[in-house]
Amino acid sequence: MFRHVPNLLTGGRLLLAAVFFVMLGLYQFKGRGDPTLLNVAFIVYVVALVTDFLDGYLARKWKVEGAFGRVVDPFVDKVLVIGSFIFFAGKNFIIPVSEQPYVVRTITGVAPWMVVVILSRELLVTSFRAMSEGSGQNFGAAFSGKLKMGFQSATILVILMYVNYLNRLEEHDYLRPATAFRDFCIWATILITVVSGLLYVRRGVGVYRKGVARSGAE
What total of structural domains would you count in the chain? Predict the structure, then answer.
């Protein structure tokens, strides 16, 4: 019975991701800007983070770690993070620049190139992991990867709160420090994402060289 609980939590997180994206898809700044949508999205994402911790913790505690969790768990994490940043850089969060009527920007502070950086890092690490595990060598998550995931998730929650309470921030004259904090979170996330990717590349190259040396010895 206990054996299936971590996998059920992982599968449930995929459903939560779908609900989360529906909320972001329905929301439209200066359009369908109902605060309830982002409030629900915030709660759903927090619940998803809790299940992300629980499924790994329970799998280790009950010693029921398997291939399903090893593959699907990071997949769901990537879907949640990359999907969130894609939405944040998309049309639902775009506002015009007042001084330039034909120029727009995102209220979230997320630019399309940032999504490209995050996506490129994930694809690169996934490729190294597939190559390593295909040759029978372990390529599990490193601390830098977990730190990256933590920063990305925190930034997503900060952006949700920033957009949802933008009017109140303006009313109470907190907009400038709130925007500075939002931008700090975004840039810190991008920096950690790049550094984490480089560390994984170095690790992947090392694993590849070991595999070549082993093949030559055989």
Answer: 1
